[in-house]
Amino acid sequence: MKRTYLYVLISTILFSSMEISLKMAGSAFNGIQLNFLRFLVGGLFLLPFAVSALKKQHIHLTGHDLLLFLLTGLSCVLVSMTLYQLAVEVDQASTVAVLFSSNPIFALIFSYLILRERLSRTNLIAVAVSLIGLLIIVNPAHLTNPLGLTLAITSAITFGLYSIISRWGSMRRKFNGLTMTSLTFLAGSAELAILMSLSHIPSIATGLASVPSLKTFAAIPFIQGIAWQNSLLLAYICIGVTAGGFGFYFLAMETSDVSTASLVFFIKPALAPIMAMFMLHEKIITPTIIGIVVIVCGSIIMFLGNRYAEQDASMQYKGIFAKLLRKPGTPTDLQQKIATERQQLKHEKIAEKDLSK
């Protein structure tokens, strides 16, 4: 169990530093380029573990699997993480970290809409509390950066959608977390590379460059900007944050359960703003602090609810499993109790007869 919490701690630190490291690298790289590099390298780093898992499970990839990974790559890398990267560039790292950490709430909503999974009372309360926290941070009456907030929230929504698509696909094909993540990263990187290549077509590049707000999408570089000065930071983003963060998260899940591993996303809303304050000298205003506290409360409610549900399901499973293991003709607990009571009554009657003699 100690090893599990070590995995959770490492994954939490890596994920909490994600927005900070991306913010620091933003001056050296194009945002879309950085998104492409980190998921390409991260996917390749996790690939040997994915291949090993596929061999152990005796799973052979099919054309339908390729379509699945293209879909998850589209929703995760191409859409959600691109919006996320743009949000980091135009807003504070602490704000983006908190808003993006609400993605499990949207995943719950999508699980109900797509998978028809039942929402428990605690889950509904957690959704309501977390949405209130988001509204406090966004503060619709006094919007200071509507673009950054919109990008961050849309990124969280689409990542929640990706989580449900990924879960649906892994349940059908029995892929483990590392396999699903690695192949999703690589498929998304390939899709992003196609769009980056299109941005180099002269007519498209000229058209995008002529619009100030779209200039960042014109002639997106692939490797330009990589130098010895920023190689360590880039390696940390690609291997540490992207591959390591997800890797340790799934190791925690495999050595414990989903609820324990999900502590990563419940701690991040509180830890990431503190790290951004010290490393980037970002100021955290009072409404943001209140919103963080409310979202963390919502996360705790969800965690406790999921924990209770898993324990309840585990107890039911053990009861059913014990019945299945019982050999035919073996008496049940109730039958054993009745037999014991009959034996006691029999001994009492014998004792009464002996006394009467």
UniProtKB/TrEMBL annotation:
Location within or outside the cell: Endomembrane system
Topological category with respect to the lipid bilayer: Multi-pass membrane protein
Coarse class of the protein's main subcellular location: membrane
Pfam families, alphabetized: EamA (PF00892)
Transmembrane segments: 35-54, 66-87, 93-115, 122-141, 147-165, 177-198, 233-251, 258-278, 284-305
Annotated keywords: Membrane, Transmembrane, Transmembrane helix
EamA domain span: 4-138, 147-303
Descriptive protein name: DMT family transporter
Family according to the record: Belongs to the EamA transporter family.
Source superkingdom: Bacteria
Lineage: Bacteria, Bacillati, Bacillota, Bacilli, Lactobacillales
